[in-house]
Design a protein that fits this description.
Beta-lactamase, 420 residues, 15% strand, globular, Beta-Lactamase, 5-stranded antiparallel β-sheet
Length: 420
């Protein structure tokens, strides 16, 4: 029945302008307290003007579920999962592309056994903003430690704990959506030190808008949760004293533990996915890092599978992370393929570019000549029940690979649709 209702929603939304906006999901304000969702509901009901949702972006809370197709899938022996037909088709996409392209594709559609294809899937890349998925896992892990027997208390803390940005945000260029239900005022701008949001809203900004400021603030909160335990949250004075007097080596160990322990617990090794540094310079000054933030396509695929299996902390936490992944501010890179417009897309993208002196070369955004990493992880769910996952990583120097990622999404969608 849910699939049928989703189809009807898709038919309705086809009449709307094809501009994408955020959706936690759309009806999630009462549950999450994410204020910008009120604006989306007002737009979709016609009360105020604004950009409309794509067909696949209008799911409600109850329509987002963990996929049973992931089931008891076990990566300890991947040989039975490898599908010769899918492998051959995936390989055929890459002969004329940069050698760095590495990918893991997993089809978990109902009606057949899972089908896996890998290309250089163990190759490690700087993880970029996809590392924010580790912070999300850390957030729900610390909530579980605080309230092991009550998801209601976890939800309550996410909604009620308000955190002022402060210097931790410096410096972040990502814009975040800011909406006041009381006044109707809306703006989109980089985070400012006086901004105050709930933990839920900071998590939303971190995943949907990919805000580095939000990631560093949440990481800081995870350290406070681990240290203060049942007395969390501390007062502002207690927090300042803690960070001013705690040895840097202790902070380093705490910072590494809170974001990486949940990955290890889910069966994802350090080689497969590890987060080493906070996402802002001021955050790194306050909590030193290990300097190794990297992942492989296979490691990221394992994260998606563990989430669908309810093993990123527990089923409630996994579902909340999946809901947050449904919140991209707009579909970009891999997720922007028009072939995915009808599909629900759970997505995170990340990039990292660095430049070095080179005669005749001018450094530009996403066009580094030393590193130019672009990564995408996605779960695609179609109204016809087709479900597949992709973890794609590349390091094509001097070229913005966004269009190539979008093109690959279109090509992979076509071949996935053709599978028997």
């Amino acid at each position: 029945m849910k699939r049928f209702l989703w189809y009807l929603l898709g038919v309705f939304c086809l009449t709307l302008p094809a501009q994408t906006v955020s959706a936690y999901p759309l009806d999630g304000f009462d549950y999450s307290g994410i204020r910008r969702l009120v604006r989306l509901e007002q737009i979709m009901s016609g009360k105020i003007p604004g950009p409309r949702l794509l067909p696949g972006a209008g799911l409600g809370l109850e329509a987002i579920v963990l996929n049973q197709g992931a089931g008891k899938l076990d990566f300890s022996n991947i040989a039975p999962l490898r599908d010769k037909t899918l492998q051959k088709q995936i390989e055929a996409l890459f002969p004329n592309r940069d050698e760095s392209y590495s990918i893991a594709v997993l089809d978990i559609s109902p009606g057949h056994q899972p089908r896996l294809a890998l290309r250089q899937a163990d190759r490690r890349f700087p993880v970029g903003s996809i590392g924010k998925l580790a912070v999300a896992a850390g957030l729900f892990n610390e909530l579980q430690r605080l309230f092991p027997d009550s998801v209601e208390k976890r939800n309550q803390l996410l909604k009620q704990r308000k955190v002022v940005a402060g210097p931790w945000i410096e410096t972040d260029h990502h814009s975040i959506p800011i909406f006041s239900p009381d006044t109707g005022a809306f703006s989109s701008r980089p985070t400012q030190q006086a901004d105050e949001f709930s933990l839920y809203e900071w998590a939303d900004h971190m995943i949907s808008a990919s805000a580095n400021a939000a990631a560093s603030i949440l990481w800081k909160e995870l350290v406070l949760m681990r240290h203060f335990g049942s007395t969390y949250p501390p007062s502002r004075q207690e927090e300042d004293v803690f960070f001013a007097t705690t040895p840097k080596q202790t902070l380093l160990a705490l910072g590494a533990a809170v974001v990486n322990e949940p990955l290890l617990a889910a069966g994802i090794s350090r080689q497969e996915f590890h987060l080493g540094n906070l996402f802002t310079r001021q955050g790194q000054k306050k909590i030193p890092g290990e300097g190794d933030s990297s992942a492989s396509p296979f490691g990221l695929l394992k994260y998606l599978v563990a989430m669908e299996q309810g093993k990123i902390v527990d089923p409630w936490s996994s579902l909340e992370i999946k809901r947050l992944m449904y919140t991209t501010a707009r579909r970009i890179r891999y997720g922007s393929s028009p072939s995915l417009n009808r599909a629900a897309v759970y997505f995170k993208s990340g990039s990292l570019y660095r430049c070095k002196p080179e005669p005749g070369f001018t450094c530009k955004k996403y066009m580094g000549n030393q590193d130019n990493v672009m990564n995408s992880v996605v779960i695609v769910e179609h109204p016809d029940a087709r479900v597949y996952m992709v973890a794609l990583m590349s390091n094509v120097l001097k070229k913005n690979s966004a269009v190539d990622h979008q093109t690959l999404a279109t090509q992979i969608e076509a071949l996935m649709k053709s599978l028997p």
